[in-house]
What we know:
Order of helices and strands: HEEEHEEHEHHHEHEHEEHH
Strand order of the largest sheet: 6-7-8-3-9-10
Mean pLDDT: 89
Distance between the termini: 45 Å
Low-confidence stretches: 1-21
Structural class: alpha/beta
Radius of gyration: 19 Å
Strand content: 15-25%
Shape: globular
Number of strands: 10
Amino acid sequence: MANTDLPTPGATSPQQAGAASSDAALMIEARGLNKFFGERHVLKDVNFSVKRGECVAVIGPSGSGKSTLIRCINYLETPTSGVIAIDGQELTSSLTHAQLSFVRRELGMVFYNFNLFPHMSVLENITLAPMRVRKLTQDRAQEQGRLLLAKVGLSDKADAYPGQLSGGQKQRVAIARALAMNPKAMLFDEPTSALDPELVGEVLRVMRELAEEGRTMVVVTHEMGFARSVADRVVFFDGGRIIEEGEPEQVFTQPQNERTRTFLDRVLHAI
């Protein structure tokens, strides 16, 4: 994988040095991204980037392409055209399965519907991938798994099965499972949308703590409070395009685009 922390050869001028530094700061980059499902054009020439240590909240109406964007970033969906790079490594359709797996394992993915294995205990769910992919020993994987369960407030659930957990607990296990791979970035696809309202807070608390630790995060969310108070940057998506992006206070209090203003007026007044 490309080491983007190394200086670019021949970058002798301040402008060149600045460009190299800017490139090195990017953990995720999408350029000219398009995605079609049949005749439906879901992503339209999207340019999207996330810096190391940055928490980016992606908001917008249902069906706007937010989840498709995040699924294309780790190639759960194959882009129709465009370029995606993770930590300097470009993902293309020509990558072998092994090469794609190598890059994809650097992205922790948390889905709205948990995706836990129901026949495995909580600890087994967390330790499976580190043992198979990272080649951790069982003892080391279990030690790490128990530390992560403590981190998400579920130390007492190591031997429980997913069917014995609440939705909020399942999602916290899913976050611990993603963290167990020690990913370079975390991707969240509407992680609270399947939860009862009283369970949302416990998941957002864990996500807030991850952001405060400086983890690189992309969060597709309908939780406007989280986007406004936790994210470093907010991206408003509509019709398959990025309509507006900026610091949370600017986007929420002084949106520059009429479509952004209309969306936020409707969503915030409905809360």
